[in-house]
Amino acid sequence: MTQSDGDLIDYPIPVVGAIEAPPEWEQLRQQCPVAHVRLPSGDQAELLTRYDDVKQVLADPRFTRSAADAARISENGGVFNSEMGNALPQYGDAHQRWRRMITKWFTAKRMNALRPDIEAMAERLVDEMVKQGKPADLKASLGFPLPVWVICDLLGVPESDRDRFAYWSDTLLNLTRYQQAEIDEAQAAFVAYMAGHIAAKRDEPGEDLLSELITATDSAGERLTDRMLVATGMGLLVAGHETTANMIGKMMAMLLSDRSRWEQLLADPSLVRTAVEEALRYDATAGFGMIRYLTEDVEVSSGVLPAGTTAVCSMASANRDENVFDAAAEMDLTRSPNLHLSFGAGPHSCIGQPLARAELQVVLEVLLRRLPTLELAVPAAELRPVEGLAVGGLREVPVKW
Predict the structure, then answer these.
(1) Using an 8 Å Cβ cutoff, are 48 and 34 in contact?
(2) Which of 39, 108, 205, 239 shows the smallest number of beta carbons within 10 Å?
(3) What is the structure's pLDDT at 221?
(4) Where does the signal sequence lie (predicted)?
(5) Cis amide bond preceding 347, omega within 30
(6) Which helix (H) or strand (E) holds 136?
(7) Going along 143-252, which residue ranges are E strands?
(8) How many contiguous H segments (helices) and E segments (strands) does the chain have?
């Protein structure tokens, strides 16, 4: 796929199937690894599709997710120009101090301690799904409520508010689904809710992350401002709702769309960890990718990206790079090492990745044990992708057993 200077590719590139990679990715990696694209806002950006380029730009600490001069992702706002995005330090020492305060709660040791509770909740949700009868929507029955319960518990917010959280999260991740008035109203309500929650935690602290952050100090001896606390709570709620909930559904659809994959795991459950990593790498509907605004010239594999460029880093395409992954187009549940970029790279890599991994592994372990006859209730070609949001996923995952 070659591209003349005047041509623009509309981005995101439409998916051909709910869990299949668009053929344009491979063509771009081979022939046009830095492509001129038109975003949903109408603004222009540069799309990076090769592994080395994506990793290099994501890992560079000089570049941030947003800037006044950066291309707008969506005409109608969203997470990249929200209160949540603007309140937190985006780069440098302040950003790293904030990250260190949060990552204390997402260590592998803490996640291992959480696993029994996550497993018990997964068991209860499977019990309820079986009781309701087949066919069932695995996303609605398990994929959504499990990570929501976990993140609500971590933040000390009531799970009973989860429907409101889901709507607020969707408006923040808007590409084309919501109008500006809806987004503004939802964000204002989300900010007010979280501010009230933090005020209540200040009066009556619990044993949750936000209660601790209210009084915690960073390495410079400074506390988070109320605005930063609100943004942190909002960011973690959005991440806990959307990314892992969608990934549970996509992982199970990938494994069940080819029955030999599920049979391989039933025969050898020790493959759960590598299977989760491979599902993360193989995910073709990972969403928009990561934005970086380049404040300096950057040399990538096919030339120089000038300062002022808005780069869209497609981790999903990078994860299919044949120069990095053997048989990249195949799903290999034994693949190891598996240095995928699904959680990003460098100073902005996903803080919650140990939690996401724990949840995905537990879900897979519980379903293999409880429902070995699990299968899709519709052909894989009939699965419907989520549309209009910056995250990718499936609207539902119908299953039977």
Answers:
(1) yes
(2) 108
(3) 84
(4) none
(5) no
(6) strand 136-137
(7) none
(8) 15, 10
* Residues facing residue 46 across a β-bridge: 36, 311
H helix or E strand, kind and range, residue 10: strand 9-10
Kindly state the tokens that stand for 226: 């109320």
For residue 65, give Cα distances in angstroms to 59, 308, 349, 351: 12, 13, 12, 15
Q: Cβ contacts of residue 205 below 8 Å, gap of 6+?
A: 211, 212, 214, 215
Measured between its terminal Cα atoms, the distance across the chain in Å is 43
Cα separation values, 283 from 49, 215, 358, 392, Å: 15, 39, 18, 9
pLDDT tens digits, one per residue of 228-270: 999 999 989 888 778 898 999 999 999 999 999 999 999 999 9
**Residue 299: how many other CB atoms lie within 10 Å:** 9
Instruction: Please count the CA atoms within 13 angstroms of the CA of 199 that sit on its side-chain side.
Output: 6
- For residue 284 the two structure tokens come to 């073709």
- Answer for the pair 289, 49: CB distance below 8 angstroms, yes or no: no
pTM exceeds 0.85: yes
CB distance 165 to 245 below 8 Å: no
For the chain, residues with pLDDT lower than 50 are none
Q: pLDDT at position 76, please?
A: 67
Q: Could you give the 3-state DSSP secondary structure of residue 350? A: coil
- Contacting residues for 113 by C-beta, under 8 A, at least 6 apart: none
Q: Please give the CATH number for the structural domain made up of 9-400.
A: 1.10.630.10
Q: What is the Cα–Cα distance from 352 to 106, expressed in whole angstroms?
A: 6
> Nearest to residue 65, comparing CAs of 297, 240, 288?
288
* Whole-angstrom distance, CA of residue 139 vs CA of residue 129: 11
Residue 243 has a pLDDT of 85
Contact (CB, 8 A) for 386 and 120: no
The two tokens of residue 100 are 């260190």
